[in-house]
Design brief:
Length: 421
């Protein structure tokens, strides 16, 4: 069998696609764009993502002579309903059955089970060097009131440190030099297993590995960030100075309704500590606008908070009311038009902040990951821009795809820069 895999949603899903691809290849199947079987690894953490996943499934089903196999979060969230709603699909495979996918992929039906998928070697890495992802945990115990992830992926399960180190070394041996550490909330790493050092201890172990490589920490819950962790990040130039800290909101009443587990004062102190400890780091966050009962005054206070803290990158989302969450039952749902207006106002402010922050890089030397030399101009990223979610660097000069090069910033835009290497 020849198959192609379509991975939707977040990098955590992409890593699962890589395990699926490896299992199929190890069973003698081959991967390619012209595959007779299409495996779609879906996303469904909000209704819009679920709709996009269903559209991708229907598009694949329209291709003549193709078997369609659907995996991922859509299967976990909607389970038996899907067989009725999507009769075009040959097989639905739940996450706990990935370990058997090489056996069941040629069969028809719905394959579900209990428990999570235990990810093991090997992986068929689907990103191009030098960039790869390393997932260190599955699930989440935070139980934020708007989030469906625990219902879909279960509670926190941390990968053993020895297995993380083994996979890290394997990625380095395979030529990947920009390793992105991911999980639903990596600051909770090890808490389920009672490991004291947690993420700080894991990072210290990774830094003992020799070589010319870089590591980025993605998805850090504010309440899990410590001075010890930030100090360690600043102690080694191989840790990319990039702080990905989703705050979701700034105001105490909304934070409480969201179940975030911290206050505005805590956020103020944590952000100040990070700026003090890592003054040159890129600070990224995400924010939800239009959460139930959010007043105009609270939204204005959120704008003031963003203006004061000057995040280098910011992703905003209009609140999505999801069945099965605590917030779904809240009264005071905000109208879509109001949510969209607040979203646009926030992003307009962030565009000005981003433009001003990037202008400070003009004439400075930065490190750039070169991603596409066929484009004109060539396209890459500063190391302080994460793949797929941040801006890009347009690259002038002689370089090869996959290079990590130093260059001078010669122009800045709203979210992007131009770099001469």
């Amino acid at each position: 069998m020849r198959f192609r895999i379509v991975s939707l949603g977040c990098p955590k899903n992409l890593v699962e696609s890589e395990y699926i691809a490896a299992r199929l290849c190890s069973a003698g199947h081959t991967i390619g764009d012209d595959g007779d079987t299409i495996v779609i690894n879906t996303c469904a953490f909000i209704a819009e993502a679920a709709r996009e996943s269903i559209e991708a499934v229907l598009e694949a089903a329209r291709e003549p002579g193709r078997r369609v196999v659907v995996t991922g979060c859509l299967v976990e969230r909607y389970r038996d309903e899907l067989a009725r709603l999507l009769p075009e699909v040959d097989a639905f495979v739940g996450r706990s059955r990935y370990g058997e996918i090489e056996r069941i992929i040629g069969e028809n039906g719905v394959y579900l089970g209990q428990g999570g998928f235990s990810e093991t070697f090997p992986r068929q890495v689907l990103t191009k060097p030098p960039t790869a992802y390393l997932k260190i945990q599955e699930g989440c115990d935070n139980r934020c009131h708007y989030c469906t992830i625990p219902a879909i992926r279960g509670g926190l399960t941390s990968k053993a440190e020895k297995d993380v180190l083994k996979e890290f070394r394997w990625l380095l041996d395979e030529g990947y030099r920009e390793i992105n550490i991911i999980g639903q909330d990596i600051t909770s790493y090890g808490k389920d297993a009672g490991r004291g050092p947690g993420l700080t201890g894991l990072l210290a172990s990774l830094l003992k590995e020799r070589g010319d490589w870089y590591v980025r920490l993605l998805y850090m819950h504010p309440k899990g960030i410590t001075e010890e962790l930030v100090e360690l990040m600043g102690s080694d130039a191989r840790v990319i100075p990039y702080l990905d800290v989703p705050i979701q909101h700034s105001e105490d009443r909304i934070l409480s309704l969201m179940g975030r587990g911290h206050t505005k004062a805590y956020l103020e102190g944590t952000l100040a500590m990070m700026r003090r400890r890592l003054p040159g780091a890129a600070l990224r966050t995400s924010i939800i606008v239009g959460f139930p009962t959010e007043t105009e005054e609270e939204f204005d206070a959120l704008l003031a908070f963003v203006s004061r803290h000057q995040f280098d990158m910011l992703g905003a989302f209009m609140y999505s009311r999801e069945e099965g969450t605590v917030a779904h039952k809240l009264k005071g749902q905000i109208r879509k038009g109001v949510k969209r207006d607040r979203y646009l106002r926030l992003m307009e402010m962030q565009k000005e902040i981003s433009r001003a922050r990037l202008s400070g890089l003009l004439g400075k030397t930065v490190k750039v990951v070169v991603e596409d030399v066929e484009a004109s101009p060539k396209v890459g990223r500063m190391l302080t821009q994460a793949p797929d979610i941040d801006g890009v660097a347009f690259v002038n000069g002689s370089c090869a795809e996959g290079d990590i090069r130093e260059g001078k910033v010669v122009k800045t835009l709203d979210y992007d820069v131009v770099v001469e290497v």
